[in-house]
Structures are given as C-alpha cells and as structure tokens.
Design goal:
It is built from two helices and no strands. The protein starts with a helix and ends with a helix. By secondary structure, it is mainly alpha-helical.
C-alpha cells in the first residue's frame, strides 16, 4: 500500500514545512483565543463585582431615602404646626387691637360728651 492510498486517491501529501506552518498558526490561534477568554472572564468578574457594589449602593440609597421620609414628615408637620400657631397668634393680636381701638373710640366719645356737658 502506498502512502497516497492511505490518504485517498486524489489527495496529495503536503510538504513538511507547510504542516509545521499550519501547526504554528493553529497554536497561535489557540493562544489568542485563550488570551481572549482570560480577558473576557476577567472583565466579567469585574462587571459582577461592580454590579454587587451598585446593588449595595442602591440598597443604601433606599434606606437613606426611607429615613429621610420619616424625618421629612416630622419636619413638615412641625413646620405646619408652627405656621398654624403663628396664624392663630396673629388673629388673636388683630382681635385685641380691634378691642383696644373700640375701647379708645368709646373713651373718646365719653370724654367728648363729658367735655361738652362741662362746657355748657
């Protein structure tokens, strides 16, 4: 049996230098693919780590926001109470002013009538 019969009737053997060249190119291709796989895996680990950090940050922001909502409600209720009490105080002062003015008017009328009766 001839060497050609083992490969096939139409196949011809390639020179050894071509076989070595193809082997080197395939080895280089495998090395490049392995490096790409390593870098992609490293990139994926970094992305997973960043995702975990972002998840923790989002949870912390949620906690901070909930705490803010609790304190915000207290602050605005107190502020509303303060405004309401100020309006009440202003209304009371206005009523007292009206009362004092009415007393002053009545006194002026009474004093005016007394002066008029004293003059006659």
């Amino acid at each position: 049996m001839t060497p050609q019969a083992a490969i096939g009737p139409f196949a011809t053997a390639i020179p050894v230098s071509y076989a070595i060249g193809i082997t080197i190119m395939l080895a280089a291709l495998v090395a490049v693919l392995a490096l790409l796989g390593y870098f992609i895996r490293d990139l994926k680990k970094g992305m997973i780590q960043k995702d975990q950090e972002h998840d923790k940050a989002i949870i912390q922001i949620g906690r901070d926001f909930n705490e803010f909502r609790v304190h915000c409600a207290e602050t605005f209720v107190q502020r509303d109470d303060y405004v309401r009490s100020q309006i009440t105080l202003e209304a009371m002062i206005t009523d007292q002013g009206r009362f004092v003015r009415s007393i002053a008017r009545d006194l002026n009328q009474w004093i005016g009538e007394k002066k008029a009766s004293d003059a006659s």
